[in-house]
Amino acid sequence: MVALRAGAATDVGRVRSNNQDSHLTSDPLYAVADGMGGAAAGEVASALAIEALNNGFHSAETVDPDALIQAAQTANRAVWDEAEANPEMRGMGTTLVAIALVQGPELAIINVGDSRLYVLHDGELRQITFDHNLVAEMVAEGRITPAEAEVHPRRNIMTRALGVEPDVPIDLFVEAPVPGDRYLLCSDGLPREVSDELITSLLTRFADPREAAKELVNEARNRGGNDNITVVVVDVVDEDPRSTGPGPATETAVDTDATTDLPAAAGDPEEQAADQPPALAPPARATRSFLSVRVVAFVLLFVIIIVGAVVGIVWYARSSYYVGLKGTQIVIYQGRPGGVLGIDPTLKQVTQYTTADVLPSAIPDLKAGHEEPTLAAAQQYVQSLVDAKATADRNASPPTTSTTTTSTTTATTAPPPTTPTTPTTLAAP
Ligand code: MN
Known about the structure:
Structural class: alpha+beta
Number of domains: 2
Radius of gyration: 39 Å
Oligomer: single chain
CATH class of the largest domain: Alpha Beta
Strand content: 15-25%
Largest sheet: 7 strands, antiparallel
CATH superfamily of the largest domain: PPM-type phosphatase domain
Helix content: 25-40%
CATH topology of the largest domain: Phosphatase 2c, domain 1
Order of helices and strands: EEEHHEEEEEHHEEEHHEEHEHEEEHEHH
Bound molecules: manganese (II) ion
């Protein structure tokens, strides 16, 4: 029968004045939350999330992966509601990564934000969760390399966080509980300072999960401690069901107070910190911010409206044709007479006809510009004007044998109306 044994440690680091991380060791549920927001908001957000997750999970009727997701949604709502109720808490949010042993047995893992969960299996470290931040997504899309991501100026921008929207998508992973496997939950303060190789070696060296957690936190602190550091180490163990109660390594407290995380033993990172020589001034790090989905949606909508309007205007300006005059020549333009918002019509076709080929009554219409929806319709209109003139000319003269089949070109070369009487004029020139 498998069971979990865990140890946790947290430290404010060497730069930040307060610890906005919270964590939970409440067998069989373990979690880390890294809060963000001004003043005390970050601490409030992570603590609220952890508390709501714990209550939600332990009150679930069925202990399955869905219970963990539901508990995380409850946590999201708790942070969101608190932020809505307190204007000074607006915009607060938190990451949340959690693992629980559920029926099956299975290990259910959920994640929102850029805290992480790794598994150490057969000496190999593998990150199971995906970081919800801008640079991780850029790496995943192949736009930048992992090395570029580490120094990217926007590496602090999260794309998903708990508590900043009424609902949040939650990643779920399910793993088989293999005795001997070791899971590591941590806030970003650990991987920022400590390489995967060093994490692997420390996890391998210290068998006791509490000791391993403490060593990892110390290492991150000693290597810069630019952010709060929180680590929960969870071991999958084979447990004899007849044994009495949980072993000493299992902590069962909801613990959101940074200063009392570790057992009051020597080697508490918080205490050790006081004895250490002053650190070299670490590089300033931007405070993490959250790129709200809502802000992105609004900006996107705005851009779509602007682009849509421009496309619409251009379409309107260019979609029509009109027949007009260029001097005495009848021409076809694409566009609207006079243009639309600076989009001038363009000359599409110079026809073979002039004002002399159409009835005088058609000239004002041409001067104003006669609109047609298509080029073909515009050409047809020109033809109709020319035909009308030809018909009028024929009616004014005696019928000839070639009336109906006479092409418009021939018609325009027909004799002027001043000599309408003689049928022989066709042959006259
Ligand atoms: Mn952090």
